[in-house]
């Protein structure tokens, strides 16, 4: 039986309901918790979400105060409550599921109610005494879910993507270190899983570094698109219920509070329904995921074996690989990175479909869109940190194995092609494949080149970069 002494009675459009006295959220948040038990992931799972919501609410309160719309004492209490949330307190009160109906209304009300009830305490009142400060009338003044929610979500992504950039840079640096460490290890490059031409293991890891590094700038550029916001547009972008001076002032305060340059959209009606920036940003995350998955595939191939695979590199041994096969160790870290990439790629499709779901002046599907982008950022960051610390940093090379593949590969004949001609090279390659003999031995046997010439041509430094062939080939 419910002890009503532990509850306070609140009311909304639908009627009255008891709310636990111990919580800061109110009746509308409680209804949302009851309605949307979907993902099991609450708003507080992403710490930047409560922070971003509080930053927006504080900016709005200060703007309304300056315009004479909100009592300064109320504005100060709201601001102080927001500061606590920005500092990391009360995050456990943001309990609505990330996936929700209502285009984010439940999230907005969760923020309004928590801020309001904490502000009431700071003003010397009890939680729920909304006659002194109201979550809708005062905390939500000159606002709508339709401008607050997308603004806060964009800000949360701008804040959160910085950890992603750090993770990319850290992984790139680890690849650079390995590239330098392996710069003199000659190996065979492969195309379509067939022997191609020689390269160094360092070049292979340098390519990993380069492709990852490209996304540092690209993701930063795409994140900048999220800085354009519709705050002040209220319900559909027309700015109804807001003072004509409010929008630029609120955005100015938000930039100062967050430390991020946020920009007021030129067309607030368009900005309220358009999800184009999310599509582009999610696409950049997908691009990074695809690259990381390709690198993980390569690491698994290069370390395959150890006796019956490529065995060119050794990955750090993280855990036993089998419950039935003694001695087996699996490439669990790259395998995990692959699966993260698959998830991010799938999330991008969700973002695409949710962005397309906009109808007329609003997109109702923003919650799942926001959820999946934040999830992608978090998983990519964690995945790259894992890949860096538990895999890349501990990779070692099997120098002798790499060299033996070069010495015995038919692909070596490609390096001789400029000196032997295509017909001779093709014939030598075919004979080597049939007989199992080395290309070098066949070339010497036929007197096509001398040992000195071969030694010069097959110097590692002469096989891994373009040369001035006209100076060494007699026509």
Task: Describe the 3D structure.
- With 475 residues, the protein is mostly helical.
- It has 18 helices and 8 strands.
- The chain has helices at residues 27-35, 48-66, 72-86, 105-122, 135-139, 145-181, 201-224, 246-258, 268-273, 276-302, 332-356, 366-390, 399-408, 413-420, 422-435, 439-445, 451-457, 460-463, and strands at 7-12, 15-20, 186-191, 194-200, 228-229, 263-264, 313-314, 396-397.
- It has a two-stranded antiparallel sheet with strand order 1-2.
- α8 (246-258) links the parallel β5 (228-229) and β6 (263-264).
- The N and C termini lie far apart (100 Å).
- The model has no long low-confidence stretch (mean pLDDT 92).
Short description:
This protein is mainly alpha-helical.
């Amino acid at each position: 039986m419910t002890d009503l002494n532990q509850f306070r009675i609140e009311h909304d459009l639908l009627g009255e309901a008891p709310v636990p006295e111990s919580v800061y959220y109110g009746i509308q948040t409680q209804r949302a918790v009851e309605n949307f038990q979907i993902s099991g992931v609450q708003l507080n799972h992403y710490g930047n979400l409560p922070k971003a919501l509080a930053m927006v609410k504080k900016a709005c309160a200060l703007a309304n105060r300056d315009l004479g719309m909100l009592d300064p004492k109320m504005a100060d209490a709201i601001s102080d409550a927001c500061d606590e949330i920005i500092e990391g307190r009360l995050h456990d009160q943001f309990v609505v599921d990330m996936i929700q109906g209502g285009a984010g209304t439940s999230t907005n009300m969760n923020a309004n109610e928590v801020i309001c009830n904490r502000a009431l305490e700071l003003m010397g009142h009890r939680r729920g005494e909304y006659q002194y400060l109201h979550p809708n009338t005062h905390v939500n003044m000159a606002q709508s879910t339709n401008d607050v929610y997308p603004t806060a979500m964009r800000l949360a992504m701008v804040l959160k993507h910085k950890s992603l950039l750090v993770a990319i840079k850290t992984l790139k640096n680890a690849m650079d270190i390995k590239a330098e460490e392996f710069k003199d290890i000659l190996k065979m490059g492969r195309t379509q899983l067939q022997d191609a031409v020689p390269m160094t293991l360092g070049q292979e890891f340098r390519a990993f570094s380069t492709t990852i590094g490209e996304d540092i700038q690209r993701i930063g550029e795409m994140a900048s698109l999220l800085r354009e916001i519709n705050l002040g547009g209220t319900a559909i972008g027309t700015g109804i219920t807001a003072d004509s001076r409010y929008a630029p002032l609120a955005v100015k305060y938000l930039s100062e509070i967050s430390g991020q340059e946020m920009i007021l959209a030129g067309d607030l009606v368009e900005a309220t329904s358009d999800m184009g920036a999310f599509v582009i940003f999610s696409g950049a995350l997908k691009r990074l995921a695809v690259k990381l998955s390709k690198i993980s595939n390569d690491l698994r191939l290069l370390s395959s074996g150890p006796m019956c695979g490529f065995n060119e590199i050794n990955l750090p041994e993280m855990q036993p690989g089998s419950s039935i096969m003694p001695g087996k160790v699996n490439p669990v870290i790259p395998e995990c990175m692959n699966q993260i990439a698959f998830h991010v790629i799938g999330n991008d499709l969700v973002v695409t479909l949710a962005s397309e779901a906009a109808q007329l002046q609003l997109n109702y599907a923003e919650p799942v869109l926001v959820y999946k982008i934040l999830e992608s950022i978090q998983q990519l960051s964690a995945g790259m940190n894992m890949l860096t610390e538990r895999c890349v940093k501990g990779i070692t090379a099997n120098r002798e194995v790499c060299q033996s593949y070069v010495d015995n590969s038919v692909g070596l004949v490609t390096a001789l092609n400029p000196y032997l001609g295509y017909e001779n090279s093709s014939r030598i390659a075919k004979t080597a494949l049939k007989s199992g003999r080395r290309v070098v031995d066949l070339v010497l046997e036929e007197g096509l080149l001398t040992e000195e010439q071969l030694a010069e041509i097959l110097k590692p430094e002469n096989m891994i970069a373009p040369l001035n062939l006209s100076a060494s080939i007699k026509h």
